[in-house]
Amino acid sequence: MEHITLLLGIVIVTALVFDFTNGFHDTANAMATTISTGALKPKTAVAMSAVLNLVGAFLSVEVAKTISGGLINESGITTEVIFAALVGAILWNLFTWLIGLPSSSSHALFGGLIGATLMSVGASGVNGSVVITKVLLPAIAAPIVAGLAAYFATKLTFKLASKTDEKATAKGYRAGQIASAGLVSLAHGTNDAQKTMGVITLALVTGNVLAPGANPPLWVIVSAGVAIALGTYLGGWRIIRTMGKGLTDLKPPQGFAAQTGAATVILASSHLGFSLSTTQVCSGSVMGSGLAPKGGVVRWSTATRMFVAWGLTLPAAGAVAAAAEFLTGQGTWGVAAVAVLLVAGSGVIWTLSRRKPVDHTNVTADDLQGPAAPLAPAEPAGVVTTAMAAVTPPPAGVFPSDATHAATGDLKATIHSPAEPARPAASV
Q1: pLDDT higher than threshold 70 for residue 5
Q2: What string of DSSP letters covers 234-289?
Q3: Which of 35, 163, 189, 236 is 20 to 30 A from residue 182's alpha carbon, by CA?
């Protein structure tokens, strides 16, 4: 570490800041369903997740090697490029946290690296085959695979539980959900903490501190694990609310199936060196579990916003990183300007978040009042619901003209008050 320059030190600190935002941005992946079903109290859940994230950081370095020696070509990449990439990733993480959308911290980092590299050295600096095989294809396949796994696991779980008393099995499912949430946290630390390890290792290689292709030093592994654990303990309550309440409503058996499926996919990908998005995997699992029971509902308006955010993450973070790299390429004043813009942008986002605060005291509330207005409003009646209402006989005691209101759950107008008898005209 004695050869680390001031700029390299700034990049390492910025990488750990990204790791911190990754932690609180992705806490929902492991603990949203556990919190929403009441299996664990919010603060207990994030504390448990933080510890297991730290442990998971020591289990593998395969993903770190994919980033440090595979995604982009080390030759020609400067420390300023990595700094610009981290700025793009951090600002996108904070923005999506502000609006409560569980976007991919991993893809924000990849987009930042790709955008800054393209601005610095052009297309020759990016390994297109690695981007396709280890980033884009897993991004498409992972949520689908996890969703299908959770769907069938939930079907099996409900079938096995159909002959047992629901109250008798609820405690067991909650225990299983806690265990599976811990497994997701461990998998998250294994996969996501390595991304920061890879970036710091890449920075050390560009600064001639490490040889190309070197594994992350122990101090890099420890610092990345601690940073992501601290961020996880802080709790990304806004995204936890969206994942736990805004996407679908889960019972403990569904939460258990969703988390077990997600953890399996994440751990398998980490072992293979696929740097996939834990956010996309966990979101796919939640949707699969939500659709599995008869009459299961996913709030597709929320899901659609998530899909849009997923699609925008790579290009948006890349565009910000490319602009930052353009400034850092101007010299020392450019690097200072980018640092100031990062701090100022982060401060603005934090200030805006205080207008509608969400924390451990109201993250599971069905209807937040005042400044903490609902982040995920109830799904409105769609075309299918309206069509069914038109052909379905109204329930007993409901007037025919009110069939649509009854079908869509609006019972306020289904009972008419008796007509008030006409009063005689007042004599003059």
Answers
A1: yes
A2: H--HHHHHIIIIIS----HHHHHHHHHHHHHHHHHHHHHT----HHHHHHHHHHHH
A3: 163
